[in-house]
Amino acid sequence: MNVINQFIAGLNDNQKKLLVIAVVMVIVALFDRLLIGPTVARLSSLNEDIAKQEAVIKQDMHFLEYKGRIDQETGEIAPYLTAHRLGDNETIAAFLNKIQGLATAAQVNLLKINPSSGQQDARYWKYQADLECTGSFSNVVSFMHAVNSDPELMKVDKFEFTGKKDSADIRATMTIEKIVVPSKSMPPKEANASSAASPATP
Q1: Which of 19, 75, 153, 159 could form a disulfide with 174 if both were Cys (CB 3.0 to 4.6 A apart)?
Q2: Which residues pair with 201 in a beta bridge?
Q3: Under 8 Å CB-to-CB from 15, ≥6 apart: which residues?
Q4: What is the pTM of this model?
């Protein structure tokens, strides 16, 4: 300590000023090296982490938007999906009963109706029924409209009208299709062919 004091005492004023400046610079350098530098590096690392988390949050928000749209679309088509598919015989019976009910409501007389067995597509089953009916033109058109607008996914595929002698009624022949869309994945055609063809047990 005495040596340091003697060294300082032997300096002139300019040398003392330079010494003070040098000491201050060393202290500042040490402060920067030991405190400011690590702090700045840490802040930079935190900013990078925050930026990454913001990107993840934005991506999650996009996923949530898509999920909302998917849920909305799923809700719109849910009434048209079939959760528990019946066997061919039961499905055809329900199909024919539905046609009979719509025809009765429209005051159309069904003369005959011939259903066909179901056909499996990649995403649905399709059923058809050829029928012949009579009624006034407006009633037959109302019946066709009721078929096409029914939530059970039916439509009049083709039709033909002919007039009746001495009557205001017409005779109509038409083919009606019914689509059954399962809410779950379709089984492979090979796996389903035998089960669909055999009548369901009561």
Answers
A1: 159
A2: none
A3: none
A4: 0.54
d(CA 46, CA 34): 19
Mean pLDDT by 10 residues, the chain (202 residues): 62 69 74 69 80 78 64 54 71 92 95 88 84 94 93 89 84 91 62 40 36
Q: Copy the structure tokens of residue 168.
A: 């205001």
In the 3-class helix/strand/coil scheme, how is the chain assigned residue by residue?
CHHHHHHHHCCCHHHHHHHHHHHHHHHHHHHHHHHHHHHHHHHHHHHHHHHHHHHHHHHHHHHHHHHHHHHHHHHHHHHHEECCCCCHHHHHHHHHHHHHHHHHHCCCEEEEEEECCCEECCCCEEEEEEEEEEEEHHHHHHHHHHHHCCCCCEEEEEEEEEECCCCCEEEEEEEEEEEEEECCCCCCHHHHHHHHHCCCCC
Q: Where are the domains of the chain?
A: 2-74, 83-197
Residues 78 and 155: their CA atoms lie apart, in Å, by: 19
Q: What topology is assigned to 83-197 in CATH?
A: Alpha-Beta Plaits (3.30.70)
* Residue with token string 């003369």: 111
pLDDT for position 201? 36
| Interatomic CA distance for residues 16 and 35, integer angstroms | 28
Q: Which residue has the tokens 């009916």?
A: 133
